[in-house]
Prior knowledge:
Number of strands: 14
Keywords: Signal
Signal peptide: 1-19
Helix content: under 10%
Protein name: NADH:ubiquinone oxidoreductase intermediate-associated protein 30 domain-containing protein
CATH class: Mainly Beta
Amino acid sequence: MRTLINLLFVVHCFAFAEAQQVWDDFTTGPLKQITTLKAEKIKIEQPGKNILGGTRYITYNVTENPYQQLFQLTIQKGTLISSTGFGTASSMNITYGGNRERALNMDLSRYKTIKISLKGKTNFARVYLNMWSNGANRAFWRGNRENHLPFQGSINAMGVNSKKVISIPLEQLTAKKATTDSPSAFDIADVDSVLIQFYGFPATGVNYAIDKIWVE
Length: 216
């Protein structure tokens, strides 16, 4: 009986692992704290074992800083943390994969939802998703299907470090319209790159942390 129970437990764990694919848990690809008092664009390349495609590419854009407030970006204890000072807005792009030698060639046809776990967000922001397959063939998500509004809102109105998970149904992806020069041939079974965008604009003083990105 114990052998049967152990076998069922192993099968259950295997099935759960198959049902969920972690893209990034931010436990690898360390990032020492980056600080700046000026407007600038920061590009970071971080290889790691627990990262989709083996490398995390971050582009961070900080706007004008009229009050000389400190901006900080770091990865600590499995969490990517962004903190932008009063009067200053920012945006962050996280890219996985790419074209040619960086292509993921990832089959997402058996999955239903991309999920992003945030915690400690204290102001409004927008989250966008873009994916490409076979070159310029793109699909994107800008919000839910009902009103097409981008996700925005505070995790907790009082600024307490609670959690929120953004769910992006793959069925809500919109394929880029075909043109003569760029046919629309996005294939969910052959995704080469993923771009997730976190926009603080137009809000300033946005603080948030990302601790997991996955698909299930």
